[in-house]
Specification:
Largest sheet: 7 strands, mixed
Number of domains: 2
Order of helices and strands: HHEHEHEHEHEHEEHHHEHEHEEHEH
Shape: globular
Number of strands: 12
CATH superfamily of the largest domain: Type I PLP-dependent aspartate aminotransferase-like (Major domain)
CATH architecture of the largest domain: 3-Layer(aba) Sandwich
CATH topology of the largest domain: Aspartate Aminotransferase, domain 2
Amino acid sequence: MKIESKLAQIGNRQDPRTGAVSAPIYHSTTYAHPALGQSTGFDYTRTLNPTRKILEDAIAELEGGVRGFAFSSGMAAVHAVFSLFCPGDHVIVSSDLYGGTYRVLEHIFRPLGIEATYVHTGHLDEVEAALRETTRALFIETPTNPTMQITDIAAVSLFARRRGLLTIVDNTFMTPYFQRPIELGADIVVHSATKFLGGHNDVLAGLVVAKSDEIAERLYFVQNSIGAVLGPQDAWLLMRGMKTLAIRMERSAMNASAIAAWLDARDDVVKVYYPGLDTHPGKAVCAKQASGFGSMVSFEVLDARMVPFVLEHLHLVTFAESLGGVETLITYPTRQTHADIPEDIREKVGVTDRLLRLSVGIEHIGDLIDDLSQALDYAAEQVLSRRR
């Protein structure tokens, strides 16, 4: 089946006793044993839950892995992946990445003896220069958050495999609808499922998919031992959101492409970060490894003093953290999602005090551009006219 059909069918035909089309929600935390030494396959819900299992099987199939794991948040999923490493291990990480991932690496795992080096993982010479004898893995965002740097997943995975390293890809921005890293050679895929997979800003979740049984067993040990698992109600909500992923991603990506082109033509916008633009240096690689360019757009205004005026005068677009919902959201990364990253590091990768990030939703494109236009026009009038 094509991925659109797989998505729409999540949870269907999973309960042969009743024939329920929508997967049942099993709230039970414990399950009766038929007899001593026997099990139905379900004993305790931290270890395995029937509703969560349907979700985990679905994301494994969608990503092309052998097994999936559902966690209570995207950061719980990231934490579980980094828990595979030991004191003294070293990982190479995309230099432009979500601030929460930087925070967990620097403030939780570095004190435990796991070190990280941050490079542009799209440049293999930088990756190679960062290698140590203790390097165990590459952790990649592509596109990165928020400046949309692109990494060639197949090339990096081959590079890592030849050196005995794991390749881990955060696929939150693209989802398996547009990009499937395991098919390109990656070993582990991680998602903040709160975002595009859920799609409605109403569920907090994280997902991980393993390429091999050996990695899957290690991840399962962490998941079961730590217990930061996704509850059955949230698993059901996530599955419901994933059913419409295909049509949501198509519409939001179409809107994002139009908005990126419109922003790129404005005199008060200095730079637009969107991999679908011809001016984006990673467009060709992104087009090779993904079937779409996604719906995240970042842009830099001419003057940092414009930012509060823009944010305060939007009427349709909502100023809020997070991304990936049907509603268009705007975020100020330097104060919100990337505040934990030191200023000098933020500035180096382009996360300046002039940068805004859009998560483009499924609203009418004319309404979105009208709203952005009036807010930017107002901000420019208040700031740029005074400069003159």
